[in-house]
Design goal:
CATH class of the largest domain: Alpha Beta
CATH architecture of the largest domain: 3-Layer(aba) Sandwich
Number of helices: 19
Helix content: 25-40%
Largest sheet: 6 strands, parallel
Structural class: alpha/beta
Protein name: DUF2075 domain-containing protein
Organism: Nocardioides glacieisoli
Strand content: 15-25%
Number of strands: 21
Length: 585
């Protein structure tokens, strides 16, 4: 390969003429380019960049941009350029320095001959652009950031693209006919439910703002929605995005703030949605299994607010009403993304409500399932394996090639290896179930967790904890990590989950459970929760924690009988020095 070069100059007709005179590849060769303004940037690819620049200069959307960069390489072909274009768009979005003005419909992830070698060159191109000021952070910093992981410019997997296509086809049919609709998208941890939800928000915004008289250049099947008829259906169409978890919602608000066509105010809590003065044409609900029922709120004032919203929407306060009912009352169309096995709180909507929701979607043939594992390198079988292990009917122990799965008898050793992994690749964190009091919330000098001489504190912030300063020295509680990715997760299974060896059963220890409200009864509704009820939620909590790590998961178990019960299922014991070696990748 001969190497690349990057030409830089003003975005002006005179510069285009000068470049064209110097190198014929500006008229007839596949290239990638970037056009930047004060706080916006557009990335494209073309076989005739001189003509494309003249078109951009004539367009109202891009004529205000000031600088131009063109990446030239004598070995580039169309496939390479499409890949580099997507690579730069995704990293610029994750960096956050510029607002990326591209549509997300053109982002592709297609294999081609020599791709692995070209992607090494992409990293070199990134570094040169970074030295030139186009990026403010390093490549690992960007790729570990939630702005990158939750970017609306992520390339969809094949099954995600099929689901999005089916959703849009049905949604536009329903809008055109005036028929209310309800869609459910199910997926286990790591299948990209949030990615699909954010992608849909950006895609619908782009379709609404598009000029159907201008052809969209994209090989994606989703480009068919940019033709005449579809943008017109979305004029005046009000869309909202509901996210129950505060930490995840704040991160998505940051993403929306940096994305043209979206706004931070679009991402709401269920209470904000319920109190909104406006009605929505479409509500997209992420993590719908974390919507709440009327009892057991996380804060006292929310009890009254729940009742007030019920009265406002339905004329009375029926204790059986849930936030699922609010969503239906506030919108004509709904898209729910959910995994009922990730319910972790007695205040979450009950399983019967989720089952009824799925039954209604089945009746209209609007239930879809995501299957491709995007997070965990161990593959699609790993999530089911973990859930099976955390049951009274475990599967046969197995290994997962290429995935760093280790079991520890020494918490200090696990903690040290997590610190080492964080130095190597970043985003390695300790996480745990809520099995210790949160004393440091009131007294910053005390420690919350003490195990075998190791003293640690819970997460110092509830918002974007995984990226906060000092988080590598803390332990993240379940509420800070659900919906997020880690490279390595060091999971502490606390004494809230125990094993009765005589009966051969997992059991819940209420004495070691300190989530302030998660196990509370609902006396005003006459509902009490048994230890067996809470056991299912605790098993869900640890299944969530054990499926956060993309490259590896390390496990320490507090209860000795449970430690021996789980030991065969999570790799080699840390007593084996070879097990501490960094996995090849």
């Amino acid at each position: 390969m001969t190497g690349f070069r990057i030409e830089k100059g003003p975005f002006a007709a005179t510069q285009i003429e000068a470049w064209t005179g110097l190198d014929p590849r500006f008229r007839n060769w596949p290239v990638v380019y970037a056009l930047d303004g004060d706080d916006q940037i557009y990335v494209g690819e073309s076989m005739n960049v001189a003509t494309r620049f003249r078109q951009h200069l004539a367009s109202q959307e891009k004529r205000h941009l000031k600088g131009a960069r063109v990446v030239l390489d004598s070995t580039f072909n169309k496939s390479v350029c499409l890949d580099l274009e997507a690579f730069l768009i995704q990293r610029l979005s994750g960096d956050g320095t510029y607002q990326v003005t591209n549509r997300n419909v053109g982002i592709s992830d297609r294999d081609y001959y020599g791709r692995e070698q070209y992607q090494k060159i992409f990293a070199d191109i990134f570094e040169e652009l970074r030295r030139d000021g186009l990026f403010s952070r390093s490549l690992p910093e960007i790729e570990n950031s939630d702005l990158f992981k939750l970017s609306p410019f992520k390339a969809l997997t094949d099954d995600q693209e099929i689901v999005v296509l089916d959703i849009l086809e049905g949604l536009f049919d329903d809008i055109a006919s005036g028929t209310p609709s309800q869609i459910v998208v199910q997926g286990e941890p790591g299948t990209g439910k949030t990615v699909v939800a954010v992608y849909l928000m950006k895609l619908l915004s782009d379709i609404r703002a598009s000029d159907s008289s201008q052809q969209v250049e994209s090989e994606s099947v989703l480009a068919e929605f940019f033709v005449e008829g579809y943008p017109e259906l979305l004029q005046g169409f009000r869309i909202g995005f509901v996210v129950p978890q505060m930490s995840l919602r704040r991160t998505i608000q940051r993403v929306f703030k940096r994305t043209p066509g979206l706004d931070a105010s679009m991402a709401m809590s269920p209470f904000e949605m319920g109190n909104s003065r406006e009605r929505f044409d479409l509500l997209i609900v992420d993590e719908a299994h974390r919507l709440r029922q009327s009892g057991n709120q996380p804060a006292g004032p929310l009890y009254k607010m729940f009742s007030d919203i019920n009265v406002k929407l339905f004329g009375h306060d029926d204790p059986d009403l849930t936030q699922l009912d609010w969503v239906r009352a506030k919108s004509t169309h709904q898209i729910y993304l959910m995994d009922s096995a990730q319910s972790i709180h007695t205040g979450d909507v009950p399983s019967r409500a989720l089952n009824a929701l799925m039954a209604r979607s089945d009746a209209s043939h609007r239930r879809y399932r995501l299957t491709s594992q995007m997070r965990v390198r161990a593959g699609e079988d790993y999530v089911g394996y973990v859930r099976g292990v955390l049951s009274d009917s475990p599967p046969e122990p197995r290994q997962f090639a290429g995935y760093d799965l280790q079991f520890f008898d020494d918490l200090a050793q696990m903690r040290q290896l997590i610190l080492q992994r964080d130095q190597e690749v970043g985003l390695a964190r300790l996480v745990a179930g809520f099995a210790w009091p949160w004393s440091s919330r009131k007294d910053k000098a005390v420690y919350d967790i003490e195990i075998g001489g190791v003293r640690m504190r819970w997460n110092g912030t509830d918002v974007d904890w995984v990226n906060s300063p000092g988080s590598v020295n803390e332990v993240g509680v379940i509420h800070t990590i659900q919906g997020y990715d880690l490279n390595y997760a060091g999971v502490i299974i606390g004494p809230d989950l125990r094993y009765d060896a005589a009966r051969g059963e997992l059991r819940f220890d209420r004495r070691s459970y300190f989530d302030p409200t998660a196990a509370n009864n609902m006396p005003r509704r006459g509902i009490s929760f048994t230890d067996e009820d809470i056991l299912g939620l605790v098993e869900n909590i640890y299944a969530v924690l054990l499926t956060r790590g993309m490259l590896g998961t390390y496990v320490y178990v507090c209860d000795r009988p449970l430690r021996e019960r789980l030991r065969p299922y999570f790799g080699n014991s840390s007593a084996n020095p070879a097990s501490a070696a960094h996995p090849k990748r």
